[in-house]
Input
Amino acid sequence: MLKKIPTAQVRTGMFIHALDGPWLAHPFWKTKFVLQEPADLAALQGSKVPAVWIDVSKGHDMQAEAEAVAPPEPAAAIAPDAPAAQALAPSREASTLSTGRVSSAAEMARAAALVNRSRQQVMTLFGEARLGKAVDAEQCLPLVEDVASSVARNPSALISLARLKTKDDYTYMHSVAVCALMVALARQLGMDEAKTREAGLAGLLHDVGKMMMPLGVLNKPGQLTDDEFTLMRSHPVRGHEALKKGGAVPESALDVCLHHHEKMDGTGYPHKLAGEQISLLARMGAVCDVYDAITSTRPYKAAWDPAGSVQRMAQWQGHFDPAVFQAFVRCVGIYPLGTLVKLHSGRLAVVVDQHPTNLVAPTVKVFFSTKSQLPIPVELLDLSRGSDRIVGREQPADWGFKNIDDFWSQQDGR
Output
């Protein structure tokens, strides 16, 4: 039986079924959980949530009599159903990258299912924007929450899978990838949960202005003309205008949409902002947007390998905030998933998981000997526990490897 009670009357031991108020004001990633920790109770009562729905059949009731009512209508505040183990609201400590972390192999199947769902959801959302309809930010919130949950379990799985987009669905999946990257980066920077959610929402909506671009220009396989390039550079302003018309979009998301192409040295667009004139979330958006763009296959260019992309970005003086970029590297790793590396032993391996703290010692799958020039039995190797080490990265094309992504995207959990 459900009851709606003021937040001030909530006590530990109650089963929280739903939270009233704006989704971004909620102090938790999930609803539908037993409130057990005093710290979580304090966070809830210190939030802007005015009231909650409790299920007295699954947790403690109020001592005072409260009127039972029908369940609330589904809303963005109510997260999609999830297994009980996933539905528990994480404490502030549990929201860090290392706590509750699972391997990329363990998360890969769930992340793949999320990629498939999100593709259709974003295509629908952006398709409506192309037709001139107002963007409803509320529709995005459950997807942002699903992305954040996957990133909390393992940031590399979803981020890497979203990188394997096709030329046709680039614009849609780029938004999902940047959403995941923004969530991971916000956590790395120590942002609170409300700010982390805003970062994820901003990442999802940052490129909505491209829906106002002609398809012939957006998907052009060759070099753009000067006029076409000028038109494409208008997408931040067009997107900002569309999001403002829709309403209910946080100012932070509007700002990221408008300013994710600004550069620290003032040479970006549309307003040539520099340094601290660019908000922190927009500086984050600039890094996440570029990384996913250059590691993805586009109509006019092939994808760069992830490790090489990080190395190149580090050399772009004046483009990114150095502190934000350093935090980003800690998120994706010096050797992101899918990087082909050469080990001291002379073997080649593919990075399949990151170490939570040691950036140069990921988990790899060894599969080829450079000494014999022959494949060898596949071996899963945690470089933080063994004597072998990475001596450099390699280009798959140089070795004739065409299915390198199969080693990490179709993991068997060994």
Remarks:
- The mean pLDDT is 84.
- The chain has three domains: 1-67, 104-332, 340-409.
- The CA atoms of residues 215 and 326 lie 36 Å apart.
